[in-house]
Automatic annotation (TrEMBL):
Pfam families: NonGDSL. Keywords: Signal. The lineage of its organism: Bacteria, Pseudomonadati, Pseudomonadota, Alphaproteobacteria, Hyphomicrobiales. This is Lipolytic protein g-d-s-l family. It comes from Methylobacterium tardum. PANTHER family: SGNH HYDROLASE-TYPE ESTERASE DOMAIN-CONTAINING PROTEIN, THIOESTERASE 1/PROTEASE 1/LYSOPHOSPHOLIPASE L1.
Length: 284
């Protein structure tokens, strides 16, 4: 499913990321990067600007780099959040727009699927089914918020997430994790923060990029006098601006990670990759 194209963010949004990918693709720069008029990553729109150290952890994205080298569309499976009508329904279009600005001349195909329930209680198995159906180059996974609110055991959550990410990567598919939402009401909650930390630990162990959404939203909520209310909607969900910022943050994380990924000498399937057939969907 290819998401419809939304109204694009301001002209300067994602400019820096676009310049990065132009360099990666060997295309000439089309203009000089504008001066940064605020703190944070200049590749982001002003409303969403966060320092890189508080925004992401980069890692290699071999499958996406191979797709770029082969000049074919990048198939992305976006998991998590709500797929119901409302503000959340605009996320796939926002992510597609942000990625296509960050990756000029590249076609991006987004398949977005909501994921109700907690990873530690069986949602990881549904993720395997989604991946087997979509066969993407990259999975962008918003993970941990349901588990954190439900106060699931952090060790059980980390074990289930680590197993699911390892399974996806074993099939030659890249993964980007997006950690839980930030809200001041949960900032001092030890159980909630253990889940946030568990997502970071799994990203490090599996060597996959991480969008530090919790830290980014905390930074943005403290930057002005509006608090978190201008980013969060009802029922612990991002509003339209929050979704746009998350899309920009994901796109910048991907663009930065691609800078650190070598061009494959001869693009081909990973010889250790197993087909996404039914027997491999449920390793245990």
């Amino acid at each position: 499913m290819q998401a419809c194209r939304p109204v694009l963010p301001p002209r300067t949004a994602l400019f820096g990321a676009a310049a990065i990918l132009l360099a990666i693709l060997g295309a000439p720069a089309v203009a000089q990067q504008p001066a940064d008029t605020g703190s944070g990553e200049p590749g982001l729109s002003m409303e969403c600007r966060v320092p890189g150290a508080q925004l992401y952890t980069a890692a290699k994205l071999g499958s996406v780099k191979a797709a770029l080298t082969e000049n074919r569309p990048i198939k992305i499976l976006a998991i998590g959040g709500s797929a119901a009508p409302g503000a959340s329904a605009s996320y796939p279009a926002k992510l597609e727009a942000a990625l296509e600005q960050a990756l000029p001349k590249v076609d991006v195909v987004i398949d977005h699927r909501g994921l109700p329930g907690e990873i530690a209680s069986g949602a990881a198995e549904r993720v395997r089914t989604m991946v087997a159906e979509a066969e993407p180059d990259l999975v962008v996974w918003q993970v941990g918020t349901h588990d954190a609110i439900a106060r699931v055991d952090a060790d059980a959550f980390a074990s289930a997430l680590d197993e699911a990410v390892a399974w996806i990567r074993s099939h030659g598919i890249d993964v980007v994790l997006v950690d839980p939402l930030y809200t001041a009401s949960m900032a001092a909650d030890a159980d909630y923060n253990r889940i946030v930390e568990a997502v970071r630990t799994v990203a490090t162990q599996q060597q996959v990029p991480l969008v530090r959404r919790y830290e980014a939203l905390r930074y943005l909520s403290r930057r002005g006098d509006k608090g978190e209310g201008h980013m969060l909607g009802r029922q612990f969900r991002l509003n339209d601006l929050g979704l746009r910022c998350m899309a920009e943050h994901v796109a910048l994380t991907i663009a930065t990670s691609l800078m650190r990924t070598d061009v494959p000498a001869e693009p081909k399937a990973n010889p250790s990759t197993q087909p996404l057939t039914e027997p491999q969907r449920a390793p245990g």
